[in-house]
Amino acid sequence: MEGNDIEELRAIWDLWLPVTQELSFQKFIEQSDLLEELKYDFNEKAELRHTETQRPFVFNYYKNVLERNSKRYQALGHLLAQYIYELLEKVCKLQKVYIPPEADKEPRSFFFMSETALTSHHSVLLVLLQDHGVFRAGQWSQQAIIHHGLQHGSQIPCIQMALQAHYDVIVLNPNDNFVDLKMEKEWKDLLTQNIGSSSLKMVQAENFLSLQQPLQCIPKRYSNTPEEHMAYIWDYFISKTEGKDVAFIVHGYGGLVFMDLLVRRKWEVMNKVYAVALIDSEHHAGHQLGSDVQLLAWIKHHCREWVTSPKPLDKPAATVLKKEFPMVSAGTEKHNLAPSSSLQSIFKYFKRALKAKTTINFSRVPIVTRSSTKRKQSA
């Protein structure tokens, strides 16, 4: 990474770090019943550290009791998700949008977008689509947040870079697919403020960490799967923007979800999306796109992938299995660190792609070939 790039990242981080000090994670944990079990906060480097020992997160809090340690880790992940939602709204100034908008009497999913994402014209709209897993909107990797810090595991540096470049942003929430009624009740109990005595809080925390409740899952309409979530937001939000050039950053399974969208909404996506940055993607062009020559030609010119590799960042890293578009090293061999490692390179790619963008629109008219012209002349 060049010196200017490092300074730019530091400047972006400095912009929102003072705000996060007011929105400290420890204050967030204090609202729960797990203050004793989770004495952690983010330091000035945005790394998660114990508030007393300053040591990194330790999984084995209850000595060799896997179930309780797993529940504690699950609770930490839930609190992190709620905390990052707060940062997206209060630090990045994004709006939380529930889907479907008209339904308020049922479990709903949601996503985040910048205020002018649907109204401003002639600006780039960046869409963030993460890997599958337990993590929610605003996260590339929960594990990376816990072990490497917000600047590596969260999407906030990416969002801030986009906003500074005058992009609008949509942050998808593809893993928020259903609600578990029993777990939701437990989360609400844990997050209730001013519960009363500390002994009551301790009892509730102990109950949460020791009980395994059966699932009572209700799917969220239009978000049963990441693919459905993506298609709905494309149809009712992204596709309705006018005069915008759309770019995607997709990580892991997000690559498969994007290719699914490309197949489902072929002409719309080909006309509206000018660049796609795939990061260690799980897509399979052969299975998903088949032999569609138009789609294969489109991804060749509009997609670029950063893959985990021991090679330095941006060095060619093509594999035998994937050769459908340019592939370069993400500068790391760790899947969950690839988004942060390749971030600067991705924005440079977007800038070049936008500059080189053509104004040719795709249409449903069949491509005229020499053989078809000859057949017409001989008829």
Automatic annotation (TrEMBL):
Species per Swiss-Prot/TrEMBL record: Callorhinus ursinus
InterPro entries, sorted: Arb2, Arb2_dom
GO cellular component terms attached to this protein's record: nucleus
PANTHER family linked: FAM172 FAMILY PROTEIN HOMOLOG CG10038 (PTHR21357), PROTEIN FAM172B-RELATED (PTHR21357:SF2)
One Pfam family it belongs to: Arb2
Organism domain of life: Eukaryota
Protein name per its UniProtKB record: Arb2 domain-containing protein
Gene name, Swiss-Prot/TrEMBL: LOC112819070
GO biological process: regulatory ncRNA-mediated heterochromatin formation
Domain Arb2: 34-313
Molecular function GO labels: siRNA binding
